[in-house]
């Protein structure tokens, strides 16, 4: 660990701060709606905000404010990306035990329903990944449970009315909460607080912090960038240093996102990055799949099917790592042109696997 870093924890993306700068209004909205400081109420909510706006931390902290007479559960649509996986996880959170194999979805639904004996609040984070599969069925089931509130969280959709079946949305019928991107000033306060807790005094130059927060208000990128600079610095984090590690810091951020997924996701992203470096942006899915297959062959692993890789490209879109333009026509009906999401001063891609 760098000599500048006293304690690494505040520089980790998973660190849950005690206070949320710039999110007081959103905290108040949730508190007022649920009445957690007095007589608690149950409300369905849909929370939207671009990546790096603090949605996950806000909801995780909010769940801790409920009294012991409530049950709270947190599901991640990335890890629990099917109804079956979500119900398994929910059962484990409610009982502390793990179900054996071979259960039908209806059986697990019944077992979960039997365990909902207290008022229950369920957060379904990264709901978009669930909606690629059978998330609609899961939400219909959850919103029909007695004495239960459901809070969905999305970085891509302001509303779930369009992707959900009419009966599901009617059952859900959420209130809406939007988290806008942080201002540069709020981002500066957040990173300055992290730096005070993690770094030696006077080790962060104000101009360095200003450069980071003027470039990005995505707090996840900002924290990763600050940590990369701290690990690289000899005696002080300067503006020149943060400029020098800018691209490396972005790749570290990408790596942290893709670590939640499979090796094939990382290989696919690297394939796109390498092709874009060699041929420029606007790559077709066919070109990407052909090159991905070659990289698999070189690595001595079997490539996944085109259909599966198409799903993985959608995952990269939802992570805001690639942009895709869809076109009708062609031999297989619909195709898309792909390019990496622009990043300031991006240079040659580095491997993230």
From TrEMBL:
The keyword Zinc does not apply. Residues 41-246 form the AAA+ ATPase domain. Keywords: ATP-binding, DNA replication, Nucleotide-binding. GO terms for molecular function: ATP binding. The keyword Nucleotide-binding applies. InterPro entries: AAA+_ATPase, AAA_22, Cdc6_C, ORC1/CDC6, P-loop_NTPase, WH-like_DNA-bd_sf, WH_DNA-bd_sf. Pfam families: AAA_22, WHD_Cdc6. Residues 268-353 form the Cdc6 C-terminal domain. One of its GO terms (biological process) is DNA replication. It comes from the Archaea. Belongs to the CDC6/cdc18 family. This is AAA family ATPase. The lineage of its organism: Archaea, Methanobacteriati, Methanobacteriota, Stenosarchaea group, Halobacteria.
């Amino acid at each position: 660990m760098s000599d500048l870093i006293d304690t690494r924890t505040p520089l980790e993306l998973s660190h849950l701060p005690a206070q949320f700068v710039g999110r007081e209004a959103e905290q108040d909205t949730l508190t007022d709606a649920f009445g957690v400081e007095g007589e608690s109420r149950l409300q369905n909510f849909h929370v939207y905000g671009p990546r790096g706006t603090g949605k996950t931390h806000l909801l995780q902290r909010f769940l801790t404010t409920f009294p012991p007479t409530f049950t709270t559960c947190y599901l991640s649509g990335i890890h629990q990306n099917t109804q079956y996986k979500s119900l398994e996880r929910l059962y484990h959170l409610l009982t502390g035990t793990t179900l054996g194999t071979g259960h039908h979805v209806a059986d697990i639904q019944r077992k979960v329903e039997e365990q909902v004996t207290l008022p229950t609040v369920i957060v379904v984070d990264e709901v978009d990944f669930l909606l690629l599969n059978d998330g609609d069925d899961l939400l219909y089931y959850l919103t029909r449970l007695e004495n239960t509130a459901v809070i969905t969280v999305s970085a891509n959709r302001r509303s779930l009315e369009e992707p959900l079946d009419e009966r599901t949305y009617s059952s859900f019928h959420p209130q809406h909460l939007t988290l806008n991107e942080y201002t540069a000033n709020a981002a500066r306060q957040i990173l300055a607080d992290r730096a005070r807790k993690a770094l030696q005094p006077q080790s962060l130059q104000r101009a360095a912090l200003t450069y980071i927060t003027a470039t990005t208000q995505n707090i996840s990128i900002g924290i990763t960038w600050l940590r990369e600079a701290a690990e690289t610095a000899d005696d002080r984090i300067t503006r020149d240093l943060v400029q020098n590690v800018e691209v490396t810091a972005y790749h570290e951020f990408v790596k942290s996102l893709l670590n939640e997924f499979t090796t094939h996701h990382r290989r696919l992203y690297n394939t796109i990055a390498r092709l874009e470096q060699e041929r420029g942006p606007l790559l077709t899915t066919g070109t990407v799949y052909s090159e991905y297959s070659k990289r698999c062959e070189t690595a001595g692993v079997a490539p996944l099917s085109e259909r599966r890789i198409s799903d993985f490209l959608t995952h990269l879109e939802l992570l805001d790592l690639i942009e895709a333009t869809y076109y009708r026509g062609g031999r297989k009906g619909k195709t898309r042109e792909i390019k990496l999401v622009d990043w300031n001063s991006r240079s040659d891609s580095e491997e993230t696997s």
